[in-house]
Amino acid sequence: MKYKNPHAFSHDQADKIGILITNLGTPDAPTTSALRRYLAEFLGDPRVVEVPRLIWKFALHGVILRIRPPRSAKAYRGVWTEEGSPLAVHTQAQATKLAARFAAKGAQYVVAHAMRYGNPSIASVLDEMLQQGVRKLVVLPMYPQYSGSTTGSTFDAIAADFCGRRWLPELRFVNQYCDKPAYIKAVANSIRDYWSNHKRPQKLLFSYHGVPLKYLHNGDPYHCQCLKTSRLIAEELGLEGEQYMTTFQSRFGREPWLQPYTDHTLQALPKSGVKHVQVVCPGFPADCLETIEEIGEENRDYFLGAGGKTFEYIPALNSDDGHIAALTELIEEQLMGWDVEDDAALEQRSHRAKSCPHNQKS
Prior knowledge:
This protein is α/β, with parallel strands linked by helices and 362 residues long. The chain has 2 domains: 16-177 and 321-338, Rossmann fold, CATH 3.40.50; 181-314, Rossmann fold (3-Layer(aba) Sandwich). The protein has helices at residues 32-43, 53-79, 86-103, 122-131, 148-162, 181-195, 213-217, 222-237, 262-268, 289-305, 321-335, 343-355, and strands spanning 16-26, 109-118, 134-141, 170-173, 203-209, 244-249, 276-280, 310-314. The two termini are 30 Å apart.
C-alpha cells in the first residue's frame, strides 16, 4: 500500500495545532441528482442504517434512491438561500468566528470545518490541514449528544483517512458535550433572549433527532444524554417538570424509534388544553432542513391543525457569540498540555535537520 505523504513538507515548517469542526452534511444543490448522490452516501453508511448490507443495498438502490431524492430536493428548495444550504452557511460562519478567536492567540492554529457526507469532505479538509503543518488535531463533531450514527460515524471517517497516511497527527476527539455548563448556559440564554421578546409558552418542547429504538437497547447512550440535556437546561431556566417535554423527530422507516414522537405530541397537546407551545432543538447546533422545514413548518401545521393557537420555533445557536464562546471553552479544554513551537525552537529543529547526513546533498 502506498501511504500519503505531505507534498510540501519542509523541516522549516512550523508545527501547528488544528481545530476541525464537523457536521452531518448537505447536498451540493437542491436538485434531484444532488440529493441522490448525498443520500446514497448518507444512507449507505452502515452506522446510520444497521441492516444487513445486501438487503439494505437492494432497498436503498432499488427503491429509496428512486423515490426519495425528488421529495427531498423539493424540501431543500424551500430552505435554500443565495449562499447555499442553511447548514453549510451556519457551519462556515461558526468556523470563521472560531478561527478569528484562535488567530488572536497566535498563528499556530488552523481552524477548519468539514461535512461527514457531501462537501467539504473530511478527507479533503484533513489533507489541507496536514499540508499546512498541523501535527496536533482536535476534532469537534457538532453533535452535543453522542450516537454511533453521528459521532461514531465521524470517527470512522477520521480513522479511514488516517489509515492511508504515513505521518499521523496527535488526535483529540470530542465525543459528546451534552452536559457541559457552557453549552447548557448558551442554550438557556438563547431561550431567555427569545422570551424577552415573546411570551413564555404553556409548554416548551425540547425536540431531538430520533434514532431507532433498537440502538438504545443495544447500548447507544444518545437517548439518556438527550434527557440529561433537557433536564439541565430546564434547571438553568427554573422550569418545573410539567412545563417542558423531551420529544424526538425525523424518524424514517417503519420500525419503532425513540419516543415520544414530536409530531404526535404536537397533534395531541391542544386536546389537553395546551394552545401555546415553543420548540427548541438542543441537538442541532446549526439550523438546517430538520429545524427550519420539519419543525418550523411541518410540525407547526400539525399543532395548529389540531387546534393549537400559537406555535413558535426558537432558532438554533448557529454562530451566536454565546455559542462560539462555549465552543471555544470546549476546545480549550482539549488543548490543555499542548504546546507549540516558538521561533527559537523551530530554528533549532531546522538546524538539526539540515545537519543530518540524510538531508545533505552530495
